[in-house]
Amino acid sequence: MSDAQILDRGYRRFEGERSGLRGSMRSVTWHTTRSILGLGRPARHKVFPVIVIVIAFIPALVFLALSAFIGDLLEGELQPAYWEMFGFSVVATVAFTALVAPEAIVRDRRNRMFSLYLSTPLSRPTYLLAKVLSVVLTMALIVLGPALLALIGFTLQNLGPDGPVAWLGVLGRLLLAGVLICAIYTALSLGVASLTDRRAFASIAVVLVMLGTTIVANLLVYEAGMSRNWLVLNPVGTALEIAPRLFGDRGEEFVDVSTWVVALGSAGWAALGSVLLVGRYRKLAAV
Fold first, then answer.
1. Among 13, 54, 220, 283, which is least packed by CB within 10 angstroms?
2. 253 is a domain residue
């Protein structure tokens, strides 16, 4: 005969602090960030995010090393513009956008967690907002991190902006450019990934969209001889062009494209991804 005993029965009222909607969003954002970076998961889930982050910082570290050894020679035309740091990490950014970011939403749907989230104070819009915040903040490590490192490093080597006002101006433009780039890539990544609950399929679809549209844009402009304005069909280059425009400059590829076309193209890609994401989750069954 079993020695098991029932020592207590019935339900107990929750006596802890109720954080409400804000606490729910904060929790989802934090745990999604941990999931994306592989924290609290087996080592194999950490490898790729770490590799992507390291690759993103290599160019900035190389330039900082050169500034430490040959600072006088680096100063001038050889010193990269701060906005160019976004372009140097573009491979890592695209890899993160296509291969890592989709994990933010496909895992919940694959594990049937989405309906459980909706049983909390979260609604569909607040759930998506928490997911978007998580991806944007995590992507900022790759997109914005190297540029900020370069700014701080060059400043310590006396190669930075002249005076605190100029320094804060550069910092503000870098932050704005980084946030906008992250927002566009996040909208596109999650919008495409919302069409499936398989991470591999989501990653392939994001790669096809980002690289496929780039190929189409290049064919239209460089092979068919159409206006360079059609380069905004390339979401990767269009988003990156935001940075030089904020610094009063232009990227070499977009030199003949007006700023309002770049702004319209960037807004269009962000809107397309957002509409796809929201529309998909509006129709997604909660059970």
1. 13
2. yes
**275 found inside a domain:** yes
Question: Is the model's pTM score more than 0.85?
Answer: yes
CA distances from 165 to 160, 169, 175, 195 (A): 12, 6, 15, 46
Give the 3-state secondary structure of residue 129. helix
Q: Is residue 247 part of a domain?
A: yes
pLDDT digits (tens, 9 = 90+) for 88-147: 989 999 999 998 899 889 888 888 888 888 877 888 899 999 999 999 999 999 999 999
- Taking residue 2's Cβ as centre, other Cβ atoms within 10 Å add up to 4
Top pLDDT among 123 and 2 is at: 123
| Residue 34 belongs to a domain | yes
Residue 28 CA to residue 34 CA, distance in Å, equals 10
Report the C-alpha dihedral over residues 138, 193, 264, 239, rounded to 10 degrees.
40
* Terminal-to-terminal C-alpha distance of the chain: 41
In whole angstroms, give the CA distance from residue 242 to residue 200: 30
Tokens of 159: 């190669």
Q: Which domain holds residue 145?
A: 20-282
Which residue matches tokens 């600072």? 71
Measure the CA–CA gap between 249 and 262, rounded to whole angstroms: 13
- Residue 175 has, within 13 A of its CA and on its CB side, a CA count of 6
